[in-house]
Specification:
The structure is a homotrimer.
Chain A (H helix, E strand, L loop, with lengths): L5 E2 H8 L2 E3 L5 E2 L1 E2 L9 E4 L16 E4 L1 H4 L6 E3 L3 H12 L8 E2 L4 E2 L4 E2 L4 E2 L4 E2 L4 E2 L4 E2 L4 E2 L4 E2 L4 E2 L4 E2 L4 E2 L4 E2 L4 E4 L4 E4 L2 E4 L6 E3 L4 E2 L4 E3 L6 E3 L4 E2 L4 E2 L4 E2 L4 E2 L4 E2 L4 E2 L4 E2 L4 E2 L4 E2 L3 E3 L4 E2 L7 E4 L5 E2 H12 L1 H14 L14
Parallel strand pairs in A: 4-5, 5-6, 6-7, 8-11, 9-12, 10-13, 11-14, 12-15, 13-16, 14-17, 15-18, 16-19, 17-20, 18-21, 19-24, 20-25, 21-26, 24-27, 25-28, 26-29, 27-30, 28-31, 29-32, 30-33, 31-34, 32-35, 33-36, 34-37, 35-38, 37-39
Antiparallel strand pairs in A: 1-3, 2-7, 22-23
Chain lengths: 352, 352, 352
């Protein structure tokens, strides 16, 4: 994609970054540091890519002051190169404004209130009493059931489903295939047979939230499921009923949060993390990829589980050794007896 | 949501629960035990919430006889409070009856048979020879390919896809984004290049099954993929070709079942469980969240895998110690030699 | 499903398999070895099913020369029974040719170029400058945003979403609910608050790729996300931005690949595998189900992680013993001191 053109000096001023070299360089687009050529700006934020700095063909690089010493071309110097890059890219590739209107094939209940500045695309279906604010874009194929409310400047890309009574804040982006407000997994057991528990809560999505493709967020069983402002959810995440996610928390793809769990503010969950139900994860807690979280962690910190992959032969032996730990402990106990040393009760007698 | 009103005494009679206190109390809605106010009924089924009992402002509580002693308000006493709650909620929040009809924007093949009592929503597409029974509701944006059959009173919420020849039983609920009958992952290898194996089986869904949002169920490669009656599937579950799931089994979100595996009746699989192919899991087997199941378990029981998350520093040390178990065993063997004790062959010589 | 009829001898000739017994047997359909009856051909490729060979009622079996000795009926003998079966099934159940045309309810931008031999189904939405080649089938409810290109004979089954500028090769199959080209999970942190990083790359899908139901593939942040020719992706896979997957690699359901990771040619990833970002997995690397891959593996080989499920009681003890490994090592060190043996520094002093 080609972007809008800027002088590097103007970008420096606009974004409050330090200019290194000529401000007259014209920036027309962004590229990676290794691919960049004439007119391109790139960034260096991950040390894995530092090897490409001295030979980059970019017209300018965004980097920190240490790396700036080796930069062969003009630069924007900053403590947070990735953030400044994001802002530069937002200027080079501005999101086009929404043109208001309703496509002829959209099916809209008479009682829905669609702001004239909002766009409703082809084959969209909108139920009774839905309220859609100014600047909203509802992409093709989306279904919005009764009583939903969508705040200003939010965007449903395409094929999004909002079940009844879902509330979406302002400037929310929802990617294709996402389902918000589906019934939670509530089942009471009657002598082996499951009886459906009515799910009568709703989903509330705060301002500035982004929700990835095919992510699902269930409605509350009684209380609402709440995604607070600024939260970022990647693709294929499952959020169960009654979950509460605090401001500015980010969750990577394929994670799953079971029912009634509360996650604090400023947390990060890696891809594939699973959190069981009725837990409380405090503010500023962080979980590495594929961790299984089975208890509450209220203190800020970095938490992990799981055995990373190794060559299969090594892994098979490791599993076998883990399975033999009882025997390992028994051997130690026998040695302790022989040496007339006191034994570790917790290891040998009690538990095994 | 506000519901229908009932007197507590009538609910007790209707549901066969023991009435404690006045039966004249009017119940208008349900709430959680901590949020409940005037007119609300709540339940106490999880001991984590017992702390809220003595101060609840609910008009009535559903609980067991032990908890009933401390209950400050009228109550319904029962051995299974969650089930009685589910039934009360079903009365307070009845599902509205389906109004028959076909929306003008639905596209329906001439050879399809739609019962006049069924509802077909906007932008629904229905293929040749599809049969839709009385009371069925097909929500907006759903696609039903040729030769599918949907039994009485089933509901496809919205944006559901049924691929050709899928059979859906009675009173089945399918949530948005679910895909039933997609081709299984069948690939034969021809010197490194994959050749697609035709998937010529179908999917059969029994009566009273519920299927969560964005869950996928592949058609059989030869035999059918079968989901038996009363099964509950949460969101984002992947069921591969030829899988057979027995009556009344419940599977939580993000679980994946590989091809040709059979799961018995009355089983439960926690969130994110992965089951490899061609296995047999017996009736009444239960698997905790994120377990990896790599062999058959035919006996009833509770099975688990995985290392739950701990603080990252502790986890890193644990991983290192697990990786050093070979060295640990060697140290023990050396001690045994020194002490002239017989060594454990399986630990030291053979395997390592 | 009933298929087309063939004589076994003709199949043998057509596919280059050795004929055992009469070539006059008529084959009308395929079934499993245990279910097969008159007119059915079946195959034996997995030793678990060998028990059914001597009693099969099939009209013919596809198997290897060793098993052929026990085969009670005519057979096709080959080194690769599953591949020959796949080819037989492709003959018995041919894919019906696409009939060109555009359904009246499809919404197509005037600037899109649809080949007259392509089929565009009901309620499909196609944006500006989209190019659709001969023989393509776009199933009901699919949304194709601006500037997408779809090569000859590709098939979007139904309810597929292609975001803008996505390029699809020839003979690609995309199953329902798949989303290609959604924004990657790019977020720069500004004092705790996330700032969206524009995702300006695209997705390129090579020829002969198959993409499963509800799988998501994000567009590149700067470079493109690339799925090379012949790749097979099962259902519910998440491919993040900038990922590159080499020719003929196959990935099973529920796997997730984080951003900027490169996977080589001829690899296989089991179900639920998670790969973290910025890694490089070489050609012919293979990963077992649910493995967590946290570092690059450049050499061909088979890699694994994870603890498979066992009975819960055993698992709880194993976890406890793993957690006590520090104490275990201390006990060994004490014994070594007592025996005046040198201690293993790495186990006792340094790390713990």
């Amino acid at each position: 994609m080609s972007g809008v053109a800027y002088h590097l000096g103007d970008l420096a001023k606009e974004l409050g970054a330090e200019l290194l070299g000529s401000g007259d360089v014209e920036i027309t687009h962004a590229e990676t540091i290794q691919d960049a050529g004439e007119g391109a700006i790139c960034f260096l934020a991950n040390s894995k890519y530092r090897q490409f700095l001295t030979t980059t063909k970019a017209s300018a690089v965004i980097l920190n002051s240490t790396d700036a010493k080796q930069c062969p071309v003009p630069a924007l110097v900053t403590d947070n190169p990735y953030l400044i890059y994001a802002r530069v890219a937002s200027l080079l590739y501005p999101v086009s404004a929404v043109t208001g209107g309703i496509h002829a094939t959209a099916v809209i209940d008479d009682s829905a209130k669609i702001h004239p500045d909002a766009w409703v695309g082809p084959c969209v279906v909108i139920g009774a009493k839905v309220e859609i604010a100014s600047g909203v874009s509802v992409g093709a194929g989306s279904v919005i059931e009764d009583n939903c409310v969508i705040g200003e400047d939010s965007k449903l890309v395409a094929n999004v489903t909002l079940c009844h009574d879902t509330q979406i804040g302002k400037r929310v982006i929802i990617h294709p295939g996402a389902v918000i407000g589906s019934d939670g997994f509530g089942n009471a057991n009657d002598k082996g047979v499951w009886f459906k528990v009515p799910q009568i809560g709703c989903v509330q999505i705060g301002d500035d939230v982004e929700i990835g493709a095919n992510t699902t967020i269930d409605r509350g069983s009684l209380r609402n499921t709440v995604i607070s402002k600024g939260v970022r959810l990647d693709n294929q995440i499952q959020i169960a009923h009654n979950v509460h996610i605090g401001d500015h928390t980010a969750i990577a793809g394929c994670a799953g949060i079971a029912g009634s769990t509360t996650i604090g503010k400023y947390c990060t969950l890696g891809g594939g993390v699973g959190v069981t139900g009725h837990l409380e994860l405090g503010d500023n807690t962080h979980f590495s990829a594929q961790s299984l979280v089975t208890r509450s962690f209220k203190n800020p910190g970095y938490y992990s589980g799981n055995l990373p992959a190794v060559p299969n032969g090594e892994w098979r032996k490791t599993i076998a050794r883990v399975r033999r730990l009882q025997r390992t402990n028994q051997r130690i106990s026998r040695l302790e007896q022989t040496a007339c040393l006191s034994q570790d009760e917790s290891d040998s007698s009690q538990e095994d």
